[in-house]
Design goal:
The structure holds three protein chains of three kinds.
Chain A: E1 4-7, H1 11-15, H2 18-30, E2 34-36, H3 46-50, H4 54-67, E3 74-76, H5 79-92, H6 97-106, E4 110-112, H7 113-120, E5 129-136, H8 140-144, H9 150-157, E6 160-164, H10 180-183, H11 185-200, E7 206-209, H12 212-225, E8 230-233, H13 234-239
Parallel strand pairs in A: 1-2, 1-3, 3-4, 5-6, 5-7, 7-8
Helix pairs in contact in A: 5-6, 11-12
Chain B: H1 5-12, H2 15-35, H3 44-60, H4 62-75, E1 79-83, H5 86-100, E2 104-107, H6 111-115, H7 118-123, E3 128-131, H8 134-142, H9 158-169, H10 177-194, E4 197-200, E5 204-206, E6 211-216, H11 220-226, E7 230-236, E8 240-241, H12 247-259, E9 266-270, E10 284-290, H13 294-298, H14 314-318, H15 322-325, H16 336-347, H17 364-368, H18 375-393, H19 397-410, H20 413-418, H21 423-429, H22 434-441, H23 453-458
Parallel strand pairs in B: 1-10, 2-3, 2-4, 4-7, 5-8, 7-10
Antiparallel strand pairs in B: 5-6, 6-9
Chain C: H1 3-14, H2 58-68, E1 72-78, H3 82-90, E2 95-97, H4 101-105, E3 114-115, H5 121-130, E4 133-136, E5 140-142, E6 147-151, E7 166-172, E8 176-177, H6 180-186, E9 196-200, E10 205-206, E11 214-215, E12 222-230
Parallel strand pairs in C: 1-12, 2-3, 2-4, 4-7, 5-8, 7-12
Antiparallel strand pairs in C: 5-6, 6-9, 10-11
The chains are: A alpha/beta, B alpha/beta, C alpha/beta.
């Protein structure tokens, strides 16, 4: 089994939360993987696709195919980006047989990070330590398109010192939705506040997810409300020692 | 054209209304979850697949099944009237009422009739149409439209009802819900017995039987279709299912998805006027098959799945956006995710161009839809259509420019890399940039990274 | 062009069928040599899910479900035991009974407070609108959901189980079926039998206001079932 993996870090991690990319690299390297980072990578095209700009999304997706054409295994620290690549590239390229074939060939090689650890690396315990009460947010695309639910929880259960407290609204959308949060900011904010209310009831001081966009949404509303809760990507928790 | 921002803001800032919406929908979500669980309904996913397949097949052969339906309705002594528009449906009823000397008819709950402003059209010609579903009766008195496809009065409290009854019925104020129900029952009982016609909707039209199937909990549909001498059913053409035996799939999904009931209290399978020596039931039966734009939806192979809908309301209950903005902020009688996808298809994409974007694409709707309509996929198609119109009309504004710019940057890695440091300039500007100002009003804007991941990687000592 | 022609034509155009094709079917007759579109062959036979369970348990299961819904269920050994079992329900009350022969067998139609033998719609309507109880048999009963199945016929009018505020359904145990799927398997085309088949699952109810459950909105708020073991 190859120990080389390629990292698609996603544009939001690259620009806003590089610490997530750093954490993923640490975890993977500790497990003995050689992490490759194709430098020409930029974005998967999801923001454009979700806003109806299919032409722009197609161009960005085509670039992605070029950048990662030689990668055997691509790891993605985001459920929504992984799902964009695995599920929606086929929609983007539905009228282009050549690119559609490339996208379909790519699909089995793309892994959301937690899924990679559990199903490819075969690892549940990465030797992490994190003291505190944590609650897990099921990001929508990960939950409903990639069917990721038990996996991250399993990984969190092996982290020493960590207590997982479930919120009653784990599966409810955080309200980000990309440009949705810009076009309907009051609704977006209200959705986040509903989640945060139920998170406060768990007593958790940290919210964990596998999607940085959700965490950014929640943290933004938390900070505005002045609450002592922080958000961390699963990778950051797993990298903690 | 634009989203009703002020009204949405009002709904979100109304704690009583928010609690009412959240509690009512949350309750039905829990009830549904119990009865579609692995223990309660192990075949739930298989049933959804079957329902989707039956609907797909039927919609793709709709003309055949409508003709079969028609033939069987006629064979059982009924009549079929095809109606291109709501006006044609209303005109037929008015005409028949005139011929038969009918001045008042009773109605059971029908979203289709709301869609075509049926009652209003009749009232213009002095034909009284009395809503008999408890919630709809109250709304009719209050001149309001339904708040939800299944629970029309979800937004009202007992105090609202007391206000409405006192004002419209001139009675002493009554705030106890059980008593309010008794009042309605008393008023409507007389109407059922005196009405010359009963008008119903139909949950399903059964082609092999020439039958309409109506599900309900109160008994008002049974009364409306059994007491008066004439029964008229109004239904969209997409309500057809091929066989009575297909009800095993649909009835096992509908009640559970809508209200968490394995079966609603009454399920009526009606096939025409009373037969032979049957003692009661109507003498005449008319099935009004309504197009009103449904053939437009049929034409698009990707979006025609919107016609599979069995109007259970589950998508509304699970939609985090509906649960915040409520039913009255949607532009049409159909609200929630199903409303968001069919409204632009019926009314044209430019009319309410904001509607397909009023979603975070969370997918909760698709997850609970009993007939597996891929609502997010249809929303995405509609969004692409809006953008396409804007492209043609050159009206995309800043957003189109922003996405074109981003796409250009994202396909030119060297440019992307050189701009990495601009994050620290861009982000502080966000609270001041037009549309982004409102985004920033709800949250603290994130701090840009001092160093992008690209930069961090480039500065690493190479590992071998 | 009639509305019918336009709508069917629009459908065919939308489905990319032959535009403007005249209607294939004349009312009540269809040539068997008609060529069906290939896609019509693709609809699989309906899947009916009938549990393989002991029929002897159906009465108990029905009773459980019926009472969970707010009804009251009696089980009696034979037809002579019916009247004693429900005597209390009928005390000081007036009732209309349907013309079901089974009710006569159970001695219902002979009771003093029971009006029976209606054959005219208006008389029946007036009577049902004024009595306390409607008494019927039931053509079938579904164990899995506690459902009564009533087919309209000269023996069973629709309004008896609908207008009066209480409803008593008396039926033999042999009428019990497993579930809706089994009903549809033995009755694949109810319309061949009757103009109205109604499934009754519990008392009439609404929760329209504040989700507060209220029974007896329009249909009967009190329902009773009497299952007779031996016919």
């Amino acid at each position: 089994m190859s120990t080389r993996v390629s990292l698609f870090v996603t544009c939001i991690v690259d620009q806003v939360f590089p610490q997530v990319g750093i954490a993923i690299t640490q975890v993977l390297e500790r497990l003995g993987y050689r992490v490759d980072f194709p430098k020409a990578q930029t974005c998967c095209g999801q923001p454009a696709f979700n806003s109806g700009y299919t032409e722009e999304a197609r161009n960005i997706a085509r670039h992605f195919l070029d950048v990662f054409q030689d990668s055997e295994t691509i790891i993605v620290p985001s459920g929504s980006c992984a799902s964009m690549i695995s599920h929606h590239f086929a929609d983007i390229f539905e009228n282009d047989p050549q690119l559609l074939a490339e996208a379909q060939a790519l699909e089995p090689r793309v892994f959301e990070f937690s899924r990679f650890l559990l199903e490819v690396a075969g690892v549940e315990d990465v030797g992490a330590r994190f003291d505190g009460v944590v609650t897990y947010h099921d990001s929508c695309h990960a939950l409903r398109e990639l069917r990721i639910k038990a996996g991250p929880r399993k990984l969190l259960s092996k982290v020493r010192g960590l207590t997982l407290a479930e919120m009653t609204t784990a599966e409810e959308c955080c309200g980000f939705g990309g440009t949705f949060s810009i076009k309907f900011p009051e609704v977006s904010g209200a959705m986040a506040r509903t989640k945060i209310d139920s998170i406060q009831q768990t007593g958790a001081s940290t919210i964990v997810s596998i999607d940085s966009s959700c965490l950014m949404q929640l943290q933004g509303v938390i900070d505005r409300a002045g609450l002592p809760i922080r958000t961390l990507h699963l990778a950051e928790v797993l990298a903690s020692r | 054209m634009n989203a009703p921002e002020a009204e949405i803001q009002q709904t979100i800032s109304d704690p009583r209304l928010q609690l009412a919406i959240y509690t009512a929908t949350g309750r039905v979500m829990d009830l549904r979850a119990k009865v579609v669980s692995d223990e309660a309904l192990p075949d739930y996913q298989a049933l959804r697949e079957e329902a989707n397949a039956i609907k797909k097949h039927t919609i793709e052969n709709l003309d055949h099944y409508l003709e079969q339906l028609e033939s069987n309705v006629v064979a059982h002594g009924g009549n079929v009237i095809y109606c291109r528009t709501g006006q044609e449906a209303a005109d037929f009823v008015l005409d028949l009422a005139k011929k038969r000397g009918v001045h008042m008819l009773v109605k059971s709950k029908s979203m289709t009739s709301e869609e075509i402003h049926f009652n209003e059209r009749l009232e213009e010609h002095q034909l009284e149409a009395v809503e008999t579903d408890f919630g709809e009766y109250i709304l009719q008195l209050a001149h309001q439209r339904p708040y939800h496809i299944v629970a029309p009065a979800l937004h009202l409290t007992r105090f609202d009802v007391a206000d409405i009854f006192t004002k419209e019925l001139g009675i002493e104020r009554e705030e106890v819900i059980e008593n309010q129900t008794k009042i309605a029952r008393g008023v409507l009982r007389r109407k059922f017995l005196e009405a010359g016609m009963g008008v119903s909707g139909a949950n399903f039209l059964v082609a092999d039987s020439g039958a309409v199937v109506i599900v309900e909990n109160e008994g008002n549909a049974r009364l409306s279709t059994s007491a008066p001498k004439i029964h008229i059913a109004i239904a969209g053409i997409e309500k057809v299912i091929p066989r009575a035996q297909d009800l095993a799939v649909f009835l096992n999904l509908l009640g559970r998805s809508a209200t968490g009931q394995p079966l609603t209290v009454y399920t009526s399978f009606l096939s025409g006027p009373r037969r032979g020596a049957e003692i009661d039931g109507p003498d005449e039966f008319y099935l009004l098959l309504l197009d009103n734009g449904r053939t437009k939806l049929l034409a698009d192979p990707d979006k025609r799945q919107s016609l599979y809908c069995i109007r259970c309301g589950a998508c509304l209950n699970h939609c985090p956006v509906y649960r915040k903005i409520g039913g009255h902020n949607y532009p049409w009688v159909y609200s929630g995710p199903i409303g968001a996808i069919i409204t632009p298809q019926f009314h044209g994409i430019t009319g309410d161009a904001w509607l397909p974007f009023a979603s975070s694409l969370c997918g909760a709707c698709a997850e609970v839809c009993p007939v597996k309509i891929d609502i997010p996929k249809v929303l995405l198609k509609l969004r692409a259509e809006v953008v396409e119109v804007q492209r043609r009309e050159d009206s995309g504004g800043w957003e189109r420019f922003a996405f074109q710019l981003f796409a250009w940057i994202a396909t030119h890695p060297r440019i992307y890399l050189s701009l990495a440091t601009l994050g620290s300039i861009f982000f502080p500007l966000v609270p001041h940039l037009g549309p982004l100002k409102k985004w920033a009003s709800q949250r603290s804007v994130p701090e840009p990274a001092k160093q992008s991941f690209h930069q961090w990687w480039a500065s690493r000592k190479p590992t071998s | 062009m009639t509305a019918r022609e336009q709508i069917l034509g629009d459908i065919r155009k939308a489905l990319k069928g032959t535009a403007g094709q005249p209607a294939l079917i004349e009312a009540a007759s269809r040539s068997s040599s008609q060529q069906l579109p290939a896609s019509l062959e693709q609809l699989p036979a309906p899947t009916l899910r009938i549990p393989r369970s002991d029929r002897n348990l159906y009465a108990d299961l029905f009773g459980q479900k019926f009472e969970n819904l707010g009804g009251k269920c009696f089980r009696v050994r034979n037809t002579s035991a019916v009247v004693p079992a429900i005597a209390e329900l009928l005390t000081q009350k007036s009732a209309v009974a349907s013309n079901s022969p089974f009710l006569r067998k159970c001695g219902i139609t002979g009771l003093p407070q029971v009006h029976a033998g209606f054959t005219e719609r208006d008389d029946l309507k007036e009577a049902c609108a004024s009595v306390d109880i409607g008494i019927t048999s039931a053509d079938y009963a579904l164990a899995a959901t506690g459902t009564l199945v009533m087919l309209s016929s000269p023996d069973e009018a629709r309004l008896v189980s609908l207008l009066p505020p209480s409803h008593i359904a008396i039926f033999p145990r042999s009428h019990l079926l497993a579930n809706l799927d089994e009903l549809l398997s033995i009755l694949p085309r109810p319309a061949d039998q009757t103009s109205s088949m109604v499934l009754i699952t519990g008392p009439s109810r609404t929760a329209d206001i504040e989700q507060r459950l209220v029974r007896g909105v329009h249909g009967p708020g009190q329902i009773f079932a009497v299952i007779v073991d031996e016919e």
